Amino acid sequence: MSKITHRSISGWKILVSFLLLVMLAFTIVPLIFMFTASMMHKNQILRMPYSWIPSPFYFQNYLQGLRGNDNSWIFPRNILNSLIVSSTVACTTVILSSLTGYGLAKFRFRGRNFVFMMIMATMMIPFEAIMIPLYMVARGLHIQNSYVGLILPFLLSAFGVFQMRQYLITFPGEFLDAARVDGLSEPGIFRKIVLPNCTPVIATLSILSFRGQWDNLLWPLLVIQSEKMKTIPLYISKFSEEKMTDEGAMMAVAVIASIPIFIMFFALSKYFIGGSSVYDSRKG
After folding, report:
1. To 10 degrees, what angle do helices 247-274 and 60-67 make?
2. Domains of the chain, CATH where assigned
């Protein structure tokens, strides 16, 4: 009986491993194709069967992607715009979500659960439903074609508040009480005790917030008309629609646009991956 059980467990492990390998292939293969195609001439990309190794390496695609089909060199400015907007939103989301989540998790006041439920209710409203009212507000405030117009609607995230609250609920209240007895102020407790112990969830929230704005197309498309203020998704959309664009240059633009996301992920991955076990142990 034990042999049959052992064989069934081994069979399940093989099946799970196979499914994980298939999922990994579906994730990695498009990235490999994007990277290799970015260094190929357009004629080589369209050749079948597809050659996964560029021969020869065609680096002019990256120059064309940065220069643009109209030789305006506007892409570096669009990259800077996306960096400013995404970094600012990530920072404000982490700070405001941490403060709000900490207050909802560790302070008892009348209506606390109601406030939390109202914040969560905003997650049920799709952005498309409030997009036009937001645009009217931005137009009334004259913040079109500006960083303020790109950043202001996304300063705080309901999902970020939820994530921080759920994490901080498990934080031992004895540490906070001991700090208060020692005379540490509430801002000092938050800055010196709470934030240093929230590194895993802060890293996760930072990556998600940064990526969300880095990939945001709909709101910049609505509020930005100036070429100098456009972000990367707008540039890619315009670049791919131009008749002169070839596939190699499009892949090069996609690679350049992906670099900051990869850098941020690998820089912060050790914090939220390494901290997941701490979070699980607190829950237990």
Report:
1. 90
2. 70-283 (1.10.3720.10)
* Residue written as token pair 């010196």: 192
3-class state of residue 194 by DSSP: helix
* Alpha helices in the chain, H assignment, sequence order: 2-37, 42-45, 60-67, 75-106, 112-121, 127-141, 147-151, 158-169, 173-181, 186-189, 199-214, 218-223, 232-241, 247-274, 276-283
Residue 190 CA to residue 210 CA, distance in Å, equals 23
pLDDT of residue 68: 82
178-203 confidence digits (pLDDT tens): 888 888 888 888 888 888 888 888 88
Q: How confident is the model at residue 209 (pLDDT cuts 50, 70, 90)?
A: very high
84, HSE (Cβ side, Cα atoms, 13 Å): 16
User: Is the link from the previous residue into 153 a cis peptide, with omega within 30 of 0?
Assistant: no
**CA gap 207, 254 in Å, rounded:** 19
Identify the CA nearest to 159 among candidates 217, 94, 221, 62: 94
Identify the three-state secondary structure at position 284.
coil
Amino acid at 106: K
Token duo for residue 212: 């969300």
Mean pLDDT over all residues of the chain? Answer: 84
By C-alpha distance, which of 139, 153, 162, 157 is closest to 85?
153
Q: What is the pTM of this model?
A: 0.83
Start-to-end Cα distance in the chain: 33
Confidence class for position 41, pLDDT limits 50, 70, 90: confident
Closest CA to 106 of 32, 155, 164, 19: 164
Give the confidence band of 57 by pLDDT, cuts at 50, 70, 90: confident
Condensed to tens digits (0 to 9), the pLDDT of residues 242-255 reads 656 678 888 899 89
